[in-house]
Amino acid sequence: MTENATSTDKNTPASSLADKERKLIAQMPYEEARDKLIQAVQALETGGLNLDQSMRQWEIGEALAKRAQGLLNDVRAKLDQAQAEQAANEATAGTQSNLD
After folding, report:
1. In degrees rounded to 5, what are phi and psi of residue 94?
2. Cβ-proximal residues to 12 (8 Å cutoff; 6+ apart), any chain
3. Can you tell which superkingdom this protein's organism belongs to (predicted)?
4. What is the pTM of this model?
């Protein structure tokens, strides 16, 4: 995420994501979620973060990975459905059953 994506709730630990951040991630297109996930991983790999910052990057990364994987799963389901429909149409091509 960016520096301006911080939690404003004083009662939550520094490493937890705000509802606003979760909603932003939940609305991201795949490419944006993937790119921000790469940034979060790079921030962790680079080091130099304190424990709270590391936990925050990890939580951001987890949320982004979940979003990206969910979008990929949706696309896979659509492709599987399209392939099944195509196979069913091919199986009945040239027969009376495809006229129903």
Report:
1. 80, 10
2. 18
3. Bacteria
4. 0.71
